[in-house]
């Protein structure tokens, strides 16, 4: 895939994109996988604020801290999918 | 011997598992703790088709990877206790994620039944789920249930009894691809040489977990006779890679099953998303949260008042009866002043406690409280704590002891310590009677506002203390967090009532136990040495109080309050019961509130100071003990007491003088 990736924390609210990778340690990554936050899954940013963001993945809503959202890489918005 | 079938109830959080558990077992349940941890263990029994069915409600988990204590509990229960049947409650409106746990359960070797819950929500949204097809594909029974109406319970129980009697094991598991499968079967071959392991664990599952690098399972295997061979074999692989592959394979399997069993199952922006945009809004979030909390306290006061008056009448009637009809006089005093004055003084607040818990249960059941935690995360972030520490804070409104235990879900040690240390400032239910008493007596119609203010003050002190700790003694960065936001739901009255009863009944038990003992001790101290007037300055209680009085005099308090505050260390309700005993003397059977109002030593400003002091002054004995246990150091427990006393004294002093200035002091 030639698209560029950026952290989920930079995606603006209301945007739907695709997860391209999870850049975290073993425990954290397993946790995210368990919740359905895996590469090639669609993710929608519901709200985003200074401290944290709410995303929707597979119909579930999660609140993530910005630090956590930094570790999740998604296809950047301007990329043609 | 009657047939007994053990059932483990499992599922993701927020799928209606508790509702289903209540619908199955009704009131025939009891709550304990899982051994070694403080997660609640709920069990219930029922009779069906000539068998006794014992249901154990496992903690809600997303997976069985043992990321948290809850997951370890759920998994160990299924492996060690070998329930006859495992029932997974599945949110039909959210099949994809729920089935991930199903894939893992299938590997544990116990028969699994799927309770397809909330089908009404899913189908209301246009999904069409073919549960027969789903059952075929998963090779497990799938039963439609609606926990809130009790629909499908008989079918579910029928399937449980049926599968238990057949005694089948579940053998259908997903494949992880040729390479991984070859590795798994090699590993199973090695593990099989140790009969202790082979008897205890399903070996395929054990091999899968080892390949995924599960630390907990590694520990379990390390004592085995084949440990060396196993670890040598595992040397050759990359855990991270396998773990990701396995997770992918599970989702792949789910992805293959779903389209065959569910026709739409595609997600759109839902009502929940809309509500979330509003209630978690940057500007509206906190005001909405505060408004709801304020409303809760107002409502608590308004609804509880007639009940309170009724109970007050009963106790004053009882008190008069005792005083008139019981001889000798000392026994009448023991019963009237000690038991009725003390315990009765606390029981008067039962309606308030129950109504507040009911409102909180409803908020929790609606899914709003999780948003509250999220909104507060913004504040938490500003003070250097993760949003996760807001959950223990929220629990602290009930009781600080379980709240402090709940900090175990916080992985980072520094975050956890700060969360523990500031928790006692969150006003627990035990302090509520003190506020209700004083606010009710001195502030009348504004009582709800005053109490709301006290709660807010507690939160503010906790926040400032956290900021102080995190920028001085406990420096560091907070760790990232992730938290699920359950969909909004209309809470059912039955669940809210059960939840209220669970929490409220602890209060009743305390009144009969520790508060009764405390009241009797205060009565004893107030009655002796022989010959002194009851509750006078010459009694033991008076002597102790007089000794401390100089310390609390600057706060506008006299020796009676000093005695009550000392005993409040045991349990904060005892502040009220001690006053009930001590004031019982002057006023005969008159209610404590009238007695306080008539006491010239107390003013409205003093009453505010008492409330502030009781809010902050020190953790009660049980809380102190749990701080010692959870931090593993008497140092931090002692620090918590000293810090609390200093902050309490200082703020009560400020309150007393500021209030004296504005509303008129003594």
Describe the structure.
The complex is a heterodimer of chains A (81) and B (666). Chain A contains two helices and six strands. A six-stranded antiparallel β-sheet of chain A has the order 1-6-2-3-4-5. Chain A is of the alpha+beta class and 81 residues long. The model of chain A has no long low-confidence stretch (mean pLDDT 76). Chain B has 666 residues and is an alpha/beta fold. Helices cover 64% and strands 8% of the residues of chain B. Chain B is built from 31 helices and eight strands. Chain B has helices at 17-25, 69-81, 95-106, 119-124, 131-138, 153-166, 178-191, 195-200, 203-211, 215-222, 227-234, 239-261, 271-279, 285-325, 329-347, 350-366, 368-382, 390-396, 400-405, 413-422, 432-443, 447-471, 493-512, 514-527, 540-552, 559-568, 573-587, 592-598, 604-616, 621-631, 634-664, and strands at residues 4-11, 29-33, 40-48, 51-57, 85-91, 112-117, 142-145, 482-485. In chain B, strands 2-3-4-1-5-6-7 form a seven-stranded mixed β-sheet, sandwiched between helices. Chain B starts with a strand and ends with a helix. Residues 585-589 of chain B have low confidence and may be disordered. The A-B interface holds A 26-36, 38, 46-47, 49-52, 54, 56, 58-68, 70-71 and B 62-63, 65, 67, 93-94, 96-97, 100, 212-213, 239-240, 243-244, 247-248, 251, 267, 272-273, 276-277, 280-282, 374, 377-378, 380-382, 386-387, 411, 479-485, 487. β5 of chain A pairs antiparallel with β8 (482-485) of chain B.
């Amino acid at each position: 895939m030639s698209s560029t990736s950026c952290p989920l924390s930079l995606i603006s609210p209301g945007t739907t994109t695709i997860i391209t990778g999870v850049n975290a340690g073993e425990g954290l990554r397993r946790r995210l996988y368990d919740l359905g936050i895996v590469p090639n899954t669609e993710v929608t940013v519901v709200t985003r604020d200074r401290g944290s963001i709410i995303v929707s993945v597979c119909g579930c809503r999660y609140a993530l801290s910005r630090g956590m959202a930094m570790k999740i890489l998604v296809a950047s918005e301007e990329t043609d999918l | 011997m009657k047939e007994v079938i053990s059932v483990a109830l499992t599922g993701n959080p927020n799928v209606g598992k508790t509702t289903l558990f209540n619908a199955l077992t009704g009131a025939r349940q009891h709550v304990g703790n899982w051994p070694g941890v403080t997660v609640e263990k709920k069990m219930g029994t029922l009779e069906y088709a000539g068998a006794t069915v014992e249901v154990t409600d496992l903690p809600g988990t997303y997976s069985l990877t043992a990321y948290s204590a809850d997951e370890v509990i759920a998994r160990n229960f299924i492996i060690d206790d070998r329930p006859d049947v495992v029932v997974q409650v599945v949110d039909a409106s959210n099949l994809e994620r729920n089935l991930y746990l199903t894939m893992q359960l299938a590997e544990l070797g116990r028969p699994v039944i799927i309770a397809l819950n909330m089908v009404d929500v899913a189908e209301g949204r246009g999904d069409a789920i073919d549960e027969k097809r789903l059952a075929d594909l998963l090779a497990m029974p799938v039963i439609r249930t609606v926990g809130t109406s009790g629909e499908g319970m008989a079918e579910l129980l029928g399937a449980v009894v049926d599968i238990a009697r057949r005694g089948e094991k579940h053998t259908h598991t997903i494949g992880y691809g040729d390479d991984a499968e070859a590795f798994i079967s090699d590993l199973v071959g090695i593990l099989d040489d140790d009969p202790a392991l082979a008897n205890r664990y399903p070996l395929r599952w054990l091999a899968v977990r080892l390949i995924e690098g599960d630390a907990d399972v590694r520990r379990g295997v390390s004592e085995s006779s084949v440990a060396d061979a196993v670890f040598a074999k595992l040397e050759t692989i990359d855990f991270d890679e396998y773990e990701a592959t396995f997770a992918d394979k599970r989702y792949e399997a789910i992805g293959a099953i779903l389209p065959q069993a569910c026709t739409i199952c595609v997600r759109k922006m839902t009502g929940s998303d809309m509500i979330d945009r509003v209630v978690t809004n940057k500007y509206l979030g906190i005001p909405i949260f505060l408004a709801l909390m304020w409303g809760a306290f107002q409502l608590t006061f308004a609804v509880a008042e007639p009940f309170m008056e009724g109970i007050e009448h009963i106790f004053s009637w009882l008190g008069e009866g005792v005083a008139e009809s019981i001889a000798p006089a000392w026994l009448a005093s023991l019963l009237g002043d000690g038991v009725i004055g003390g315990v009765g003084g606390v029981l008067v607040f039962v309606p308030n406690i129950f109504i507040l818990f009911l409102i909180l249960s409803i908020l929790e059941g609606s899914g709003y409280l999780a948003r509250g935690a999220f909104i507060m995360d913004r504040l938490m972030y500003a003070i250097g704590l993760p949003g996760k520490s807001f959950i223990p804070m929220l629990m602290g409104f009930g009781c600080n002891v379980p709240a402090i235990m709940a900090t175990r879900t916080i992985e980072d040690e520094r975050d956890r310590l700060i969360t523990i240390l500031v928790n006692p400032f969150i006003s627990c239910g035990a302090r509520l009677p003190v506020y209700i008493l004083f606010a009710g007596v001195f502030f009348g119609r504004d009582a709800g506002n005053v109490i709301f203010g006290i709660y807010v003050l507690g939160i503010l002190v906790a926040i400032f203390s956290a900021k102080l700790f995190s920028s001085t003694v406990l420096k560091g960065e907070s760790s990232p967090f992730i938290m699920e936001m359950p969909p909004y739901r209309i809470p059912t009255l039955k669940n809210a009532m059960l939840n209220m009863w669970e929490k409220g009944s602890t209060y009743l038990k305390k009144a009969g136990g520790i508060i009764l003992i405390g009241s009797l001790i205060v009565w004893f101290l107030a009655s002796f040495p022989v010959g002194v007037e009851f509750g006078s300055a010459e009694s033991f209680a008076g002597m102790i109080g007089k000794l401390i009085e100089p310390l609390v005099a600057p706060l506008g308090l006299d020796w009676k309050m000093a005695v009550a505050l000392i005993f409040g260390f045991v349990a904060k309700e005892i502040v009220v019961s001690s006053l009930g005993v001590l004031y019982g003397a002057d006023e005969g059977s008159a209610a404590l509130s009238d007695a306080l109002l008539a006491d010239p030593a107390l003013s409205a400003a003093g009453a505010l100071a008492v409330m502030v002091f009781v809010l902050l002054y020190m953790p009660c004995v049980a809380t102190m003990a749990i701080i010692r246990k959870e931090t593993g150091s008497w140092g931090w427990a002692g620090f918590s007491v000293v810090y609390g006393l200093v902050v309490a004294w200082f703020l009560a002093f400020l309150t007393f003088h500021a209030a004296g200035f504005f509303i008129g002091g003594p």
